[in-house]
Amino acid sequence: RSTRIRLLNGHLVSLPNGLLANEPVENISKRPFLKHSLSVTLTYDTSPEKMNQAVEILNEMLDARKANFPSDRPGRVYFMDFNADSLGVAVTYWFAPPEWFDYCQFNHEFNMELLQRFNEEGIEFAFPTQTLYLKNDPPTE
User: Which residues contact 4 (CB under 8 A, 6 or more apart)?
Assistant: First the structure.
């Protein structure tokens, strides 16, 4: 009259079947991949040339790792947003097979290379900032 479910944290939970009969159950052991969405934010003083270079670097990095993606789901990179404090580049990829610690290691290596390559090229990551202009300030150039 109950169903036992092992949670991701290792705990075993027993749920009455009456409760489960009306609820969706997600079986993560059957997922074909892990989707990762990353927002890379760049400073507003990033030139169009540097933005193109940033997108190119990200595409090169994804292309070099395409063996880790399902063939019908290649990684994607787009300059997506003019945020309040940054220019947003959206990166999406689908990692397969969906082994959690391999996925974590993949993300670690991807992020380390991204940090290194952007630093080498002088492409600056944004963080929340504000510029305050007062009425009597002289104009900036």
Answer: 12, 13, 14, 15
Per-residue pLDDT tens over the stretch 80-124: 999 999 999 999 999 999 999 999 999 999 999 999 999 999 999
Could you identify the residue written with the tokens 């109950």? 2
DSSP summary character for residue 8: T
Strand blocks (E) in 46-136: 76-82, 87-95
Over residues 17-61, the pLDDT tens digits come to: 888 888 887 888 889 999 999 999 999 999 999 999 999 999 999
> Between helices 100-121 and 48-64, what is the axis angle to 10°?
150
Please give the Cα distance from 141 to 137 (Å, whole number): 12
CB neighbours of residue 138 within 10 Å: 5
